[in-house]
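Ticket #4471: structure output looks truncated?

Reporter: J.K.
Steps to reproduce: submitted the chain below (141 residues) through the standard prediction queue, then opened the result file.
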Amino acid sequence: MYQAQHPDEDKPAVRWLPFQLNPDLPEGGIPREEYVARKFGARGKGVNERVTQAGRQVGIPFAYEKMKVQPNTLNAHRLMVFAERAGRQDELAEELFRAHFTEGANLTDREALADIADRAGLDRKAAADYLASDTDRDTIA
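Returned output as attached by the reporter:
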């Protein structure tokens, strides 16, 4: 949309930077219901419903009922670093958001992350090999 309104200008550059909201979660995450209860208490179900309604208004079909795991996002953030090197950060970010918020994907599962990388146009095997290593773990942490 920006480019259509400003055809003579270069497209703004976007660089995604890591920020873990819950770095204290175990690497495998925790059950989503437990996380919501811990963080929001009795008002937790209402929080999801308000976000779901807001999403509908802008065409985002949030599906919190599909989320079974609240992930530790360290490996998802590492994958964003991997995608940056391939010039595919925007595509990966979009696929990560779609997978987590509308499909309920478990973002702690390395196979799921490799599949998401593939959907974003990255080499699945290279992404899986990267995730199996410790590369960039300290950078994100």
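Triage note (M.O.): checked the attachment and the full token line is present. The helical segments are 2-5, 32-40, 44-57, 74-85, 89-103, 110-119, 124-132, 137-140.
Status: closed, working as intended.
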